[in-house]
Design a protein that fits this description.
By secondary structure, the protein is of the alpha/beta class. It folds into two domains: about 170 residues, Lyase, Ornithine Decarboxylase, Chain A, domain 1; about 170 residues, TIM Barrel (Alpha-Beta Barrel). The protein is built from 15 helices and 21 strands. Strands 4, 14, 15, 16, 17, 18, 19, 20 and 21 form a nine-stranded mixed sheet that branches. Helix 6 packs across helix 7. The radius of gyration is 23 Å and the shape is globular. The termini are far apart. The structure holds pyridoxal-5'-phosphate.
């Protein structure tokens, strides 16, 4: 496994004001406190309780449209397929579908969610290294745009399933370009040591075989080199150059290639990262693939929805340990897993306008789950936060709710969508009854 790039945390954390200034979805009202668009988070907490996920509809739309403009201005014939794994909430996916985005799905559940959210089947791509036969049959029954094939074995399997239904499955071959995306080891996918895709050297032979399989209609290639890519777009550029060469080679052999799925992965600034821009990404696609007349697909997730969401939490208590201050909040690693899983940094803002400018001291912010890794941050400069104080974990719109679990028998938190002065609960808090639902004692114990 490639080592994660060393995290440069020797720079001071951004100030509350800097965090706010870089996030147009948020504002600090001197009376109402921290707001998402024009809705005070305190109002949402009073209405739905905490923890709760809060998403800005305007930010989702703005970012979807920024990506669309970047590819259009580069002259690319491109469609954008939102990676629903980053946030499969129906209201979010529906809103993005309303902006003309399709969906990238990786399971039956995500495919059903995309359809339920109103994404046309012809705008859905099915990715993932382990699709089951049942998922393949569903994708064929729905007649989705394409399935991305990740191995020779999967190609045979899909061909068999499609042929048994008298169909030919539109598919692309996911190529592993052996490019280091220089992201966290747990979310890099474009190296030959990763489980994803087919090594680029083996792709021509497999693509040729796929073209001869009775149940397949190969339409092109796919690539996705990793997630939270923040070191410019050089690795994208390298991957798309390799893909471009492969397209030429396949065509020279008389094989049809009409589409290239360029994947997702564009990073966001959680702390002080300076990720590549959509314009730079579009430029990298154009440089590698622009003269081939291929249809381009993109599968971004995090870039669109990450900055659109916060996780709103309440302080349960502050505990003063030996030389340490712990702020214990009612959100935990079961809600927002990223810090425990990837050592991720999330901005944390107090919601109260008084706390926003109050003196600060270093604190560890932790959840109530019985794991030491249930730690959101260590040594963060925060004001005094008495019980009941609200805090917002920033940039929690991607891989937040979608990675939640019910660990420690904690119900899933509700999701709220804000637009202007309105807000709506778009997913209820899971009830205690729902947590127990579906469980039973074996009949030999029930008596
Ligand atoms: C195949 C594929 N496409 C798209 C994405 C979306 O990535 P991101 O949310 O980083 O844009 C992922 C996530 O890793 C993925 O595996």
């Amino acid at each position: 496994m490639a080592a994660a790039p060393a995290r440069v945390l020797d720079t001071p954390d951004p100030s509350f004001s800097d965090l706010l200034a870089a996030r147009p979805a948020l504002a600090m009202d001197p009376l109402a406190g921290l707001m998402v668009e024009e809705v005070p988070l305190a109002r949402i907490a009073a209405a739905v309780g905490t923890p709760a996920w809060v998403y800005s509809a305007t930010t989702l739309k703005r970012r979807a449209n920024a990506l669309k403009s970047a590819v259009a201005e580069a002259g690319l014939n491109a469609t954008i397929h939102f990676a629903t794994k980053s946030n499969p909430n129906l209201a979010v996916v529906n809103l993005l579908a309303g902006q003309g985005l399709g969906a990238d799905v990786v399971s039956e559940g995500e495919l059903r969610a995309a359809r339920a959210a109103g994404v046309p089947a012809g705008m859905i791509v099915f990715s993932g290294v382990g699709k089951t036969e049942r998922e393949m049959r569903l994708a064929l029954a729905e007649d989705i745009l394409q399935l991305n094939i990740e191995s020779a074995e999967e190609a045979e399997m899909l061909s068999g399933v499609a042929a048994s239904l008298g169909r030919r499955a539109r598919c692309a071959l996911r190529v592993n370009p052996d490019v280091d995306a220089k992201t966290h080891a747990k979310i890099t996918t474009g190296l030959t040591e990763n489980k994803f895709g087919v090594p680029i050297a083996l792709a021509p032979e497999l693509y040729r075989r796929m073209c001869a399989m009775p149940g397949l209609e190969p339409v092109g290639l796919a690539v996705h080199i990793g997630s939270q890519i923040t070191q410019g777009v050089a690795s994208y550029r390298a991957a798309y150059q390799r893909l471009g060469q492969l397209v030429r080679e396949l065509r020279a052999a008389g094989l049809p290639v009409k589409r290239v799925d360029c994947g997702g992965g564009l990073g966001i600034a959680y702390r002080d990262e300076i990720p590549g821009t959509p314009e730079a990404l579009a430029g990298a696609i154009k440089a590698g693939l622009g003269d081939l007349g291929v249809e381009i697909m993109l599968e971004p997730g995090r870039w669109i929805c990450g900055p659109a969401g916060v996780l709103l939490a309440s302080v349960i208590v502050e505990k003063i340990g030996q030389d340490r201050r712990f702020v214990i909040v009612d959100a935990a690693m079961n809600d927002l897993l990223r810090p425990a899983m990837y050592d991720s940094w999330h901005g944390i803002l107090p919601v109260s306008p008084v706390a926003f400018t109050a003196p600060v001291s270093a604190a560890d912010v932790v959840g109530p789950v019985c794991e030491s890794s249930d730690t959101f941050t260590k040594g963060r400069e925060l004001p005094a936060l008495p019980p009941g104080s609200l805090v917002a974990f920033l940039d929690a719109g991607a891989y937040g709710a979608s990675m939640s679990s019910t660990y420690n028998a904690r119900p899933l938190a509700p999701e709220v969508l804000v637009e202007g002065t309105r807000f709506a609960v778009v997913r209820d808090r899971q009830s205690q009854e729902a947590l127990l639902a579906g469980q039973r004692l074996p009949d030999w114990r029930a008596a």
